[in-house]
Input
Amino acid sequence: MFELDDTQRAFETAVRGWCERELAPAVPALESGERLPYELLRSLGTDLGVAELLTAMGEARLARLSAPAASKGMRSDADPTTPTQLGGDPLLTSVLLKEISRVSPGVALVLISTLGCAMTILERGTAALVERYALPLLRFEKIGAWALTEPGAGSDAFGGMQTRAVVEGDALVLSGQKTFISNAPHADLFAIYARVVRSEGEPVVRPVLVERGTAGLETGPPLRKMGMHDAPTGEIFLHACRVPRANLLGSLGEPTQARGGPALQTLNLERSVMPAMCLGIIERCVEESVSYAKERRQFGRAIAEFQGIAFKLARMELALENARNLVLKLAWAQREGKLDARLASLAKLYCAEQAVAVSLAAIQVHGGAGYMAELPLEKLMRDAKMFEIGGGTNEIQLQTIARSILS
Ligand SMILES: Cc1cc2nc3c(=O)[nH]c(=O)nc-3n(C[C@H](O)[C@H](O)[C@H](O)COP(=O)(O)OP(=O)(O)OC[C@H]3O[C@@H](n4cnc5c(N)ncnc54)[C@H](O)[C@@H]3O)c2cc1C
Output
């Protein structure tokens, strides 16, 4: 439980090697926008066998959906339903995201966003939708986006949602707008949450699949932002956008669940993978800082010999240990089917706060050099801030934790 086994360690070594060889040299071009992350994502999928593992999972899901009704209730270990269990082991996903995030948290964000779209289909889609849409995403042949946030509906994404889908015969007609959506400027496929108007009863919030190129769907240019420059973020505009009714994920007959229902499953999973991304930032910052503090000399001695610096490093190490333990616990909880909103929010909140605090401390340890773009620290700090907002803000995580312990 407290350390990686041989298989996980070997995977970590392979991913680190790939990131040093392929990803690190590409970061300046990704940061400036000269290069997009998607072709790198495809190489990652192929070179590290990630696409193969994900596709096997999608195919297992497809087989299960296509199986006769009597055998559908039987679930085997080889049939995890979510891409957060790479090869049936959630810790492999954590290792993958941690290693990518040591170099480029943005590329990890691009990856989880496309998988978020795939996962929504795997969880709620028919066999036909899984085959047509989820498998190409899992092979990284197509890129997906997962679109919940709107200009007027962020933390209150469900209560404030304005995007509407109206059933017209065999079609759904969508109108509305989404914003701050990862991959939106370049995605091939969008899982868009909309308030679906039914002939009877209250509207229900459901994800609907929309392909790029569908009349009535437009995306804006990449938004300029503080960090995560290697993960394009943008808006989606829907003007009477007509898609087949079969693109609706989930049935309209199901009762509306309080506070988000199906989207919360994806949000909990997003919250449960983000701590591994924060861990990558923390781990890299601690390593860089310890080594710099031992080398850098001022006043005739290594700066590590000053208690002010040594104590800072000790606190950074404490955050690293705690974050690592939370990531291990999350993987254990996922494997045991014990992942709940409390644990996902608690881990996401702690790891996001520590990624910001540790990256700022790392810059301080490095002095002027830490502030310069030549070192990875200022980028990691700008990227770290996203984790206190995306996937639900710190305040919303606190609210979720409080609600779960007080209920
Ligand atoms: C880089 C990036 C990528 C993103 N990618 C995606 C994506 O792929 N898909 C997607 O759907 N969304 C995405 N988001 C959107 C993100 O999930 C939202 O920004 C986030 O949920 C917060 O919503 P908001 O920005 O509207 O802030 P608001 O909800 O307006 O919040 C503003 C402030 O008020 C606080 N607040 C709000 N309600 C409460 C409350 N009840 N109690 C206390 N404080 C409260 C918030 O914590 C925050 O501090 C992304 C965001 C970023 C920055």
The pocket of flavin-adenine dinucleotide is lined by residues 113, 146-149, 154-155, 180-182, 228, 233, 386, 389-393, 395-396, 399 (CB under 6 Å). Residues 262-295 form the longest helix (34 residues). Residues 153 and 160 are 5 Å apart (CA to CA). DSSP finds 13 helices and nine strands in the chain.
